[in-house]
């Protein structure tokens, strides 16, 4: 594919070397990381950490930020370039021009076990040994990979993909255009037990899980149903692997949770919140819209909209940064205080 | 169901509005959270955080704590109420009056693959594509959901439920009335490797996992078998999702572990210990009976019975609370110390 | 088996009670932990914590460290012993003399679903309901347990074992002599999304996962493929359960990661690094060869080769130890500083 064709197709180009030199329009055979790209492999540069690669990369085609210095350097080295406010987004679109994700053809494998009361839209694909139980509805174009188990009365929206070995429990509602990755467990009963003198008495979990459209649930993540009502994950939210959403949580739209994030019951997560890896949130906490928790934050109370929190127990990010900078000097500080004390008190 | 019938059935009522006004006995159609309950939906109130809902809820039936002020308020608003020392337990029992959990009928699905040397009690249910290997014994009323794999020589006690896509490894012994949730892996070989000049040499894991009666293992949790002897999880213990119990751990009775708790090899957990979310415990540590670790605690040594520990490295809870309160003031304190030092030393 | 035969077979004996007393050569029927071993059960002692057991154990055969005091004590109690510089390694080899791990016989179960374009070496074992898709190659002696799903174009090296219910995604390359444990997910698409005004846009993950020879992937661990290029796990590396390796990570050889370790995208881990339980590593960090991170460390930047880091944010281990020792005295220190301030400023 010609470099100029890529520039046309990704639709977010701000400027390109083609203006100055329309004849320098190399053939591009694929995409690669900037430190590994060879001639004919399109790559991209984003952030200070990678900027120096414009001087060393072996590729002859780059997506650059809107930085005249980098553009000049690329031109000098004979690298065709296009610049954009968002090189990573442009690169994402370039990948999609060269890559066709694996998707099984529509059709139902003869070894799939499908209850006669289950119903499907058009063009559904159901893989080998998948088990679809009573009353399930699979929308148009749904893809169920091998060995998936769907418990009774589940509803799956159009074009959603259920990857191999995931399990969807009874009455779960999944929207359209979702991806539930391998090993994920959605809709299993929440961890509800009440202490009694005779041990832990189970609280039946009669509620359901609702996953709205465009949600991604990562491999081996778990989303539990509540005692009453709904555990909800909002439209367009993306969960990484090994994430745990407990019973009754209300997760907003466009939220991102990185790997191994976990939350206790009844947590509310506002729209567009970002939780970095291994963040934990205590029960009933309310995280305001657009808030950010950095990696390993331990959140015990509410977080205001837009706030950035860090550490465990979580503090405002700037407070935490300053406190942790002093933390490492504690032994030195302690000695000084002891000397002062001896001297003066 | 009449409100009075519910009051009778849950068996822990201390007082109720029916004494003063037997005629006010509404029909109850279901249960709901207090902020979502409408007329005819029984709800409950527990804790200060939810107390104000007695003045705003739209339901006409509530389970209340033994609090005359809340009772009077409910009466004033025409809400039928019953009060108990433990509203959450009463509500748990009320849910069970309205909810029938999904349970497959007894019988063996024709696609299940069962070794001829496996044996079963009465009324066993084995789902589609489940695989039961040589020498396995399944007790009376055991329910094996679809796509479960049971390795050879496993023993499963009466009425235990194995949810879809869980895996039980060779020689594991599971008691009666347990629930092993989807994706859980029980009895796989522990992480035993010995360093040598030529790399890590495997230590064979010849031991077994024993799960006693009434244990709950959450979705995608893992419990490993040891090199020699037994990894044990005691009677009535409840594990949430994504919990990791390493080889050779001895977990007592009535223990609760929240999501993503993990422990290294050879840890001993006393009876009725509570580990909150994401707690980690180092190898060979001994956690005394009734101890509590708050969320994200990192425990490197032994914890005394009944102790509450917090933070990483874990400290006594009160010490940790005070230290973390000062922590956020470290930058301010550091400045004061620097001024004092300049002034005086 | 005679004690003397064991001493011969484990090949790392430095001295033994047989020299002084060749006639005292007990029959050994098995192996056990030192606090549980009875007569005829070989055990071992390593470390100060267990040394006192030489005076109380009920076994009549021990593997000891090269410690004359312990040897004399064992001789005095009539315990046959052998000593070695590495008792744990010797015990590992002794276990292997008494234990035959479960391994299914070669052969393909009739319920396995194998694409006609998949190919296998000799002596492959494929269990019930396993699904092997188009273009897959399984090397000689590969063992695929029941209900495993292998997506198209995967290559699995000789003698590798895929445990029940694990999932290997498209184009993954797994070396020889690996073990992928139950529920693990290898090669699923990485967590790549780019923010746009209209929500998170997916970055297709066109790369692959490469697992080199002798790697162990624990139960329910996840290893994701990257947008471009390779996620790599080096030869002889051992991963415990519930570990998360994100897209594009480069993990070296002989690395050990304990349970619930997680890392963000593009992390580089040098050879022979050791990451203790629940460690987290931020994206693009580089961990130098032989570095060690203690349990729960939160690593945000690079770590030098051989360095030991502790805490979150991670500090050099000694700095962290000293700082955390002062941390618990913060309230006391704060009071002193306040008194000094009042007195003097």
From TrEMBL, chains A, B, C:
Name of the protein: UDP-3-O-acylglucosamine N-acyltransferase
Catalytic site positions: 247 (proton acceptor)
Keyword Lipid biosynthesis set for record: yes
Alphabetical keyword list: Acyltransferase, Lipid A biosynthesis, Lipid biosynthesis, Lipid metabolism, Repeat, Transferase
Entry-linked NCBIfam families: lipid_A_lpxD, PRK00892.1
Main function: Catalyzes the N-acylation of UDP-3-O-acylglucosamine using 3-hydroxyacyl-ACP as the acyl donor. Is involved in the biosynthesis of lipid A, a phosphorylated glycolipid that anchors the lipopolysaccharide to the outer membrane of the cell.
Keyword Iron recorded: no
Residues covered by the UDP-3-O-[3-hydroxymyristoyl] glucosamine N-acyltransferase non-repeat region domain: 25-97
Species of provenance: Leptolyngbya subtilissima DQ-A4
EC number: 2.3.1.191
Associated pathway: Bacterial outer membrane biogenesis; LPS lipid A biosynthesis
Catalytic class of the enzyme: transferase
Subunit structure: Homotrimer.
Family matches, as Gene3D superfamilies: Hexapeptide repeat proteins, MurE/MurF, N-terminal domain
Family stated for the protein in its record: Belongs to the transferase hexapeptide repeat family. LpxD subfamily.
Top-rank taxon: Bacteria
CDD domains, sorted: LbH_LpxD
Catalytic activity, reaction form: a UDP-3-O-[(3R)-3-hydroxyacyl]-alpha-D-glucosamine + a (3R)-hydroxyacyl-[ACP] = a UDP-2-N,3-O-bis[(3R)-3-hydroxyacyl]-alpha-D-glucosamine + holo-[ACP] + H(+)
Gene Ontology MF annotations: UDP-3-O-[(3R)-3-hydroxyacyl]-glucosamine N-acyltransferase activity
């Amino acid at each position: 594919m010609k470099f100029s064709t890529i520039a046309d197709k990704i639709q977010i180009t701000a400027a390109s070397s083609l203006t100055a030199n329309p004849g320098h329009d190399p053939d591009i055979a694929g995409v690669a990381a900037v430190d590994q790209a060879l001639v004919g492999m399109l790559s991209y540069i984003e952030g200070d950490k990678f900027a120096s690669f414009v001087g060393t990369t072996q590729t002859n085609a780059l997506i650059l930020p809107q930085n005249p210095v980098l553009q000049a350097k690329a031109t000098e080295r004979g690298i065709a370039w296009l610049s954009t406010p968002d090189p990573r987004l442009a690169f994402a679109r370039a990948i999609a021009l060269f890559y066709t994700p694996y998707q099984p053809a529509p059709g139902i494998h003869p070894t799939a076990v499908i209850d006669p009361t289950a119903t499907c839209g058009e063009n559904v694909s159901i893989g080998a040994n998948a088990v679809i139980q009573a009353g399930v509805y699979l929308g148009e174009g749904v893809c169920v990979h091998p060995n998936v188990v769907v418990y009774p009365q589940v509803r799956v929206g159009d074009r959603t993909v259920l990857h191999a070995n995931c399990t969807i429990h009874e009455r779960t509602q999944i929207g359209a255009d979702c991806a539930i990755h391998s090993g994920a467990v959605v809709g299993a009963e929440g961890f509800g037990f009440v202490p009694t003198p005779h041990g832990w008495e189970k609280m039946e979990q009669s509620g359901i899980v609702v996953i709205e459209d465009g949600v991604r649930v990562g491999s081996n993540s778990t989303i539990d149903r509540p005692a009453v009502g709904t555990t909800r994950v909002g439209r367009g939210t993306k969960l990484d692997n090994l994430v745990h959403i407990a019973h009754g949580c209300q997760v907003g739209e466009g939220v991102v949770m990185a790997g191994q994030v976990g939350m206790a019951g009844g947590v509310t997560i506002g729209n567009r919140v970002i939780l970095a890896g291994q963040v934990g949130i205590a029960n009933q906490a309310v995280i305001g819209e657009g808030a950010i928790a950095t990696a390993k934050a331990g959140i015990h109370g509410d977080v205001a909209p837009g706030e950035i929190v860090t550490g465990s127990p979580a503090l405002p990010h700037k407070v935490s940064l300053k406190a942790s900078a002093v933390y490492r000097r504690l032994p030195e500080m302690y000695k000084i205080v002891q000397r002062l004390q001896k001297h003066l008190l």
